[in-house]
Amino acid sequence: MTDTTPNSAPRSSDTTGPQPLDATTIDEVGGGLSCSPEDLTRLTASLKESYENLVDFTSHVIERVIGK
Known about the structure:
mainly alpha, 2 helices, 54% helix, elongated
């Protein structure tokens, strides 16, 4: 039986549940890239530094515009 309420897709009669993903599918979802914890730590540090530089630059521009 399908659900016919508005804005809902018909429900499948498949009751086997979700299937595990294989390694190929996981690689495709991730774009074929893999990161180590060290890579993520370096990326996070780089993003933080970029953000701090942007804040400093913005503050500098605001001070110049205000005329401090």
